[in-house]
Amino acid sequence: MKQVTVNVRLYGGFRKYKDSVDLSIPAGTPVSAVKESLCQALGPQSRDLIMDSVVANDQTILPQGYVIEGDMRLSILPPVCGG
Amino acid sequence: MDQACDIKVSVSTEALDANNACGFVTDPANGAIDMFIGVVRDNHLGQTVTGITYDVHETLAERELMCICREAQGIWPKTRYFVSHYHGYLPVGGVSVLIAVSAPHREESFEACRYVIEEIKKRAPVWKKEHYVGGESEWLPGHSLVMQGEEEQAVCCGKCGAHG
Questions:
Q1: Domain B7-154: assigned CATH number
Q2: CB atoms within 10 A of CB A45
Q3: Of A64, A75, B51, B83, whose CB has the highest number of CB atoms within 10 Å?
Q4: Element (H, E) at B61
Q5: What protein family is recorded (chain B) (predicted)?
Q6: B126/A81 CB distance under 8 A
Q7: How far is B70 from B87, CA to CA, in rounded Å?
Q8: Are B152 and A64 an interchain contact pair (Cβ–Cβ within 8 Å)?
Q9: Which residues are within 8 A (CB) of B145 and not within 5 positions of it... i.e. 6 or more apart?
Q10: Cβ–Cβ below 8 Å for B157 and A64
Q11: How close A42 gets to chain B, by Cα (Å)?
């Protein structure tokens, strides 16, 4: 199966791990599985924050079922507190 | 960033300037300007705060700020908006967010300005790391952007079959 590389930029509480992480995942992977892959990359202590977070591209937040077909850059957005 | 002639939004690493905000929303047809200035305070939940680092997804934040202003303009017509959020470290007293709204009358300017700041707190991709007097620091909890039901379906890619 074709593998694609997803660069995930980390924000807020994820910054303690690093600023971004590259994930190698099968083409056709949904966003929900990207979150699982990210959890494996960052460690089990990151799971609760990942599950409370959303994945976005530079245009919008992506639904859990959004399918990743090729290499791309995404962001993981934890709960927000601007202002 | 797409800017409307009567809405200006930005994420800035420079000090936010209230005069710029007021000047942009000034309009001879509008008799009221309301301004909200968010400032770093020196305490939170009993701890002495020395400053806050603001982390921001700049592209998405500017999109969301514009979206919020357009929504407000749909509710309160003939209003003008200037919204800027700071990105980076601010000491106590630093200005983190600046919102100016002008409207034909004061009531709309108050209501629209309140709407914008409340929506920013719930929706803008901005995160705060508080720094305390002892040298510790902590990312603050916030509002989850996780989508539910119809909201998720509205932006579904159409390929996943999850909502069929």
A1: 3.90.1170.40
A2: 9
A3: B83
A4: helix B58-75
A5: Belongs to the MoaE family.
A6: yes
A7: 23
A8: yes
A9: A53, A54, A61, A77, A79, A80, B123, B125
A10: no
A11: 17
Residue A30 lies in a domain: yes
Q: Tell me how long chain B is.
A: 164
Q: How far apart are CA B71 and CA B9, in angstroms?
A: 14
**Is residue B156 a contact partner of residue A65, using CB atoms and an 8 Å limit?**
yes
CB contact under 8 A, B155 and A60: yes
**H or E stretch covering B50:** strand B47-56
Q: What is the mean pLDDT of chain B?
A: 91
Q: Which tens digits make up the pLDDT trace of A28-80?
A: 999 999 999 999 999 999 999 999 999 999 999 999 999 999 999 999 999 99
Nearest neighbour of B143 by CB, restricted to A15, A30, A80: A80
Domain limits, chain B: 7-154
Query: Number of CB pairs < 8 Å for A and B?
Result: 120
For residue A82, being part of any structural domain is answered with no
**Nearest CB to A11 within list B55, B157, B162:** B55
B155–A77 C-beta distance less than 8 A = no
Percent of chain B with pLDDT over 70: 88
Closest of B52, B39, B45 to residue B137, by C-alpha: B52
Inter-chain CB proximity B157 and A61 less than 8 Å: no
